[in-house]
Design brief:
With 334 residues, the protein is of the alpha/beta class. It has 13 helices and 14 strands. The protein has a single domain, classed as SGNH hydrolase (Rossmann fold, 3-Layer(aba) Sandwich), CATH 3.40.50.1110. The chain starts with 5 loop residues before the first strand and ends in an 8-residue tail after the last helix.
């Protein structure tokens, strides 16, 4: 999504320009973006009070939740609103963000909003963003532009927030030390391959990458990136007083059975067991769809979910979410 749609924010780094309405060029033919007055891509302005006959979900995630590639009404959060009676979804999805920034957005914008359930949707690649101190974006010409981001460090089992406020202006990579360059997040494990895939299509490249592990940071419970991610998720879920629903979103490599998901699945189970939050892994339900249909859950070049992908995720999620909303507060995995 073009960087020009965002404005600087001194805590989370950036947000959408409040009240923005724009049409974005895309391989699908283009899509519409509508932003509320808080700077998030949600059709609702965020109100503190909740109507008594409405059940409200606070939804956090990255571009897969914000809906890169599709208009607002096709996103899984919006589809859930149409599927579950009297449901209101406040979408705090922020493209390019990590779980650390999403946690900060929760504390900055959502802490006092009345709701029934907090839904944390973690694209599994976010583990790489959490470990980053800088995020590289690409302009319309493909030129990389580096921005500082807020981040946490884990010191003696304690989360320490760093780099708030982040620098407003872009940072030339030449200004970074070799040590700092280790914390550059280019948005993928192999950015050169992914840029080629975005330009020419992922099919041929993806077929040659069967068995490829896109997120090896989950392989060990002792991996530093995972320990940091886990600490953030545990702080978020244990300090929240309402129901917390944790949902890892698989990459297309997992959905199309090119990569083994078992390591990330094990790591998220560890969080659920440690905190008692509700865990729902949508991958087993999504794998029930025919393989050919699953390929249609992403675009030809852009790996983000198509309207069909969002609809499938919503269809899998809806009965689980409705059941949780209908039951008293309890603990466990779903």
């Amino acid at each position: 999504m073009p960087r020009q749609l965002f404005e600087y924010h001194p805590v989370i780094g950036y947000r959408f320009i409040p009240n923005l309405k724009a049409r974005i060029q895309h391989e699908s033919g283009g899509y519409l973006v509508r932003v509320n007055n808080s700077g998030f891509r949600c059709n609702h302005d965020f109100l503190k009070e909740r109507k008594t006959d409405i059940r409200r979900v606070l939804l956090f995630g990255d571009s897969y939740t914000a809906g890169d590639g599709v208009s607002n009404e096709y996103r899984y959060g919006d589809v859930l609103e149409k599927t579950i009676p009297n449901l209101e979804v406040y979408n705090f999805g922020l493209p390019g963000s990590g779980t650390d920034q999403q946690y900060l957005a929760y504390k900055e914008f959502a802490i006092d909003i009345e709701h029934d359930l907090l839904l944390i949707a973690v694209l599994v690649e976010n583990i790489r963003r959490v470990a980053g101190h800088y995020r590289v974006w690409y302009d319309e010409t493909g030129k990389p532009i580096c921005y500082a981001k807020p981040y946490y460090e884990l010191v003696n089992h304690t989360l320490i927030l760093k780099n708030v406020p982040p620098r407003r202006e872009p940072i030339p990579e030449s200004e970074l030390s070799d040590e700092e360059k280790r914390f550059l997040d280019y948005g993928g494990r192999f950015p050169v391959i992914e840029k080629l895939a975005a330009r020419f299509g992922v099919k041929d490249i993806a077929q040659k990458m069967s068995g490829y592990q896109p997120v090896p940071e989950y392989d060990s419970a002792d991996n530093p990136a995972w320990r940091l991610m886990r600490a953030i998720l545990e702080a978020w879920t244990t300090n929240h007083k309402k129901k917390v629903f944790l949902m890892p979103i698989p990459l297309y490599q997992h959905l199309e059975e090119m990569s083994d998901p078992s390591h990330y699945q094990a790591r998220f189970r560890e969080v659920a067991q440690a905190t008692g939050c509700f865990l729902y892994d949508p991958l087993p339900d999504l794998l029930k769809y025919p393989r050919k249909e699953r390929r249609g859950f992403r675009f030809e070049k852009d790996p983000h979910p198509t309207p069909q992908g969002h609809a499938a995720l919503a269809a899998c999620l809806a009965p689980v979410l409705k059941g949780l909303l209908d039951t008293p507060l309890r603990m466990g995995s779903l």
